[in-house]
Amino acid sequence: xxxxxxxxxxxxxxxxxxxxxxxxxxxxxxxxxxxxxxxxxxxxxxxxxxxxxxxxxxxxxxxxxxxxxxxxxxxxxxxxxxxxxxxxxxxxxxxxxxxxxxxxxxxxxxxxxxxxxxxxxxxxxxxxxxxxxxxxxxxxxxxxxxxxxxxxxxxxxxxxxxxxxxxxxxxxxxxxxxxxxxxxxxxxxxxxxxxxxxxxxxxxxxxxxxxxxxxxxxxxxxxxxxxxxxxxxxxxxxxxxxxxxxxxxxxxxxx
Length: 255
What we know:
This is Transposase. The chain is of the alpha+beta class and 255 residues long. It has 12 helices and 4 strands; from the N terminus they run βαββαβαααααααααα. 26% of the residues are buried.
């Protein structure tokens, strides 16, 4: 049976790929550096934004953003060309990756913030290092350096915090509750992803909430706004409530 084509919407994606049979795909510093070089090269070629990433010995995590339907093309070039490099260097043949990469569309800001911390903290979780800055194969240490690599200059972290290294460190070292991460992932996957070229505007959202008289009606309109593609962050801002409160309304509606 042929594989179903991936549906690619503009926006942010969490990407994971693992080595076949859980084998190491990065064996020495040169391997990590080659992957990073290819990643940055093809990100520029395809107009893709890299928000953050972490390369582990047998898998990798990427948080990227696309503006057109070219995610599969980007991933094909990245994985294929790294495989060619790795197989040639090690005089091996056959598949390097266990299969097609896994991807999750990120539609919720709470999920996004938790996900960025989770990606960077992989080396800590695996007890490879005691501090994040000690791990050289993730975006974290680049964010703390004076010169940010070209392929990370448009990342959310850089745009949000500029060169405030203390704020970056405080944000990315926030403890991650993995059960909360999974819950946020499930909630995010249940929300229809908007077409970002037609993303709703804040002034339109304010009109939607103009004649609200009670909390029950407000919560009903919150769910309608979510279905129309408004972000939980924008809804919270317009209503003057916390994003967690908006997320609570969405979560209760799924029960």
